[in-house]
């Protein structure tokens, strides 16, 4: 039982650790963007580092299991690179530069809701509203959205950090917030679409390390092309051994290569809704780190929104955990019934013959055999698979 609990806890532990990596990426990249680094260059270097980090592992570990490349799979990879590395990352960095890590991650909490809707529309996730766990999953998703809205719109009294006098930061303008919100919402839609397409692609191309490598490499090529078009000057690509290089390497290795690998692995086991359900934890981690480490104050509405977000995340995860337990029990029952069906004849019908019962005559003390006439009992076994 201990081993089983440990195995079942690994996906949750891996996804929580991944959110800490995303939180660190937000804080580091916000610093370099404020110092003037182009987000186009940051995205290009990020995906280049990601490709270099994950390619050797993909080449060595998946040489024998790598599927044949077809035009359909290549187009999936091309669109995945366009949705993730190009559209999502560039628009997210624009929103991050215009506002703050807390605001950007709060708006991005719409991703689980969008993923849940797309997952349901494409019939990758079954929603049976008559079941309590499905109702809880929907309510938890809505609570997560409400928490994000509270953090974005409701301010309330300002709560200053004990280190706020050590830091100076300019407050973004109202117009910047509106512009950033639009960019971040488009980025969230692109990111949610990336998860749906990635889950679909993994069914055709199961070598997730190789898939992640090719997505990062294709994203590097697309990002470089976009950089040359938008910058009109290759000089921004020249970076030295400074904070810009560190931010690019951290974002590429942690938030792209490792993240794509873990997400792809969890996508195969748990599905896209499980992967995106952890995204709201990023804003909780970022808010705490910004308050205590960076000395950035927060509004009361932000604190309330963090609490509501946490409740929504745990609600969705609980419902998903109940779903996983139900699927495991159903698979075990189906395996047992299928084994009985295969061993019994008559197309799954097991016929119990008449039973000859021996009993003792009370008067004579002799044992005599009496055949009890009983109708044959027919027992039918049926299996049903639930996806």
TrEMBL record:
What stretches pass through the bilayer?
A: 12-33, 39-61, 73-94, 106-124, 136-157, 177-197, 209-229, 241-261, 273-293, 299-319
Question: Which key words tag this protein in UniProt?
Answer: Membrane, Transmembrane, Transmembrane helix
For the EamA domain, which residue ranges apply? 12-152, 180-317
Q: Which residues form a coiled coil?
A: none
An example molecular function term from Gene Ontology annotations:
transmembrane transporter activity
Which Pfam families does the entry link to?
A: EamA
Cell compartment(s), UniProt: Membrane
- Cellular-component GO terms for this entry: plasma membrane
Q: How does it sit in the membrane?
A: Multi-pass membrane protein
Claim: Iron is one of the keywords in the record = no
**InterPro entries associated with the record:** EamA_dom, EmrE-like, WAT1-related
The record's comment on protein family reads:
Belongs to the drug/metabolite transporter (DMT) superfamily. Plant drug/metabolite exporter (P-DME) (TC 2.A.7.4) family.
Q: Which PANTHER family match?
A: WAT1-RELATED PROTEIN
By what name is this protein known?
Answer: WAT1-related protein
Organism, scientific name: Brassica napus (Rape)
């Amino acid at each position: 039982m201990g081993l089983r609990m440990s195995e079942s806890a690994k996906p949750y532990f891996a996804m929580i650790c991944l959110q800490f990596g995303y939180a660190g990426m937000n804080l580091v990249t916000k610093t370099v963007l404020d110092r003037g680094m182009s987000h186009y260059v940051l995205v290009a270097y990020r995906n280049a580092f990601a490709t270099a980090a994950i390619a050797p592992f993909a080449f060595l570990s998946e040489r024998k299991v790598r599927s044949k490349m077809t035009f359909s799979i290549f187009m999936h990879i091309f669109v995945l690179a366009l949705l993730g590395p190009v559209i999502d990352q560039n628009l997210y960095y624009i929103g991050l530069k215009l506002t703050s890590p807390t605001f950007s991650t709060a708006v991005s909490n719409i991703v689980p809701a969008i993923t849940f809707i797309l997952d349901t529309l494409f019939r990758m996730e079954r929603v049976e509203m008559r079941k309590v766990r499905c109702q809880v999953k929907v309510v938890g998703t809505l609570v997560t959205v409400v928490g994000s809205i509270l953090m974005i719109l409701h301010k309330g009294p300002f709560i200053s950090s004990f280190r706020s006098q050590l830091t100076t930061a300019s407050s973004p303008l109202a117009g910047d917030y509106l512009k950033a919100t639009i960019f971040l919402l488009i980025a969230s839609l692109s990111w949610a679409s990336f998860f749906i397409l990635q889950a679909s692609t993994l069914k055709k191309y199961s070598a997730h390390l190789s898939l992640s490598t090719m997505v990062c490499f294709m994203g590097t090529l697309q990002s470089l092309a976009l950089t040359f078009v938008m910058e009109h000057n290759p000089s921004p690509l020249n970076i030295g051994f400074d904070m810009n290089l560190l931010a690019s390497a951290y974002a590429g290795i942690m938030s792209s290569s490792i993240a794509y690998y873990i997400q792809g692995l969890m996508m195969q086991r748990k599905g896209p809704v499980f992967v995106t359900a952890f995204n709201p934890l990023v804003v909780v981690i970022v808010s705490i780190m910004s308050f205590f480490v960076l000395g950035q104050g927060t509004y009361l509405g932000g604190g309330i929104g963090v609490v509501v977000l946490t409740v929504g995340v745990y609600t969705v995860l609980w419902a998903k955990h109940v779903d996983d337990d139900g699927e495991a029990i159903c698979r075990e029952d189906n395996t047992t019934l299928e084994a009985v069906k295969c061993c019994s004849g008559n197309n799954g019908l097991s016929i119990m013959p008449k039973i000859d019962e021996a009993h003792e005559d009370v008067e004579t003390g002799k044992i005599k055999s009496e055949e009890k006439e009983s109708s044959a009992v027919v027992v039918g076994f049926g299996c049903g698979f639930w996806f």
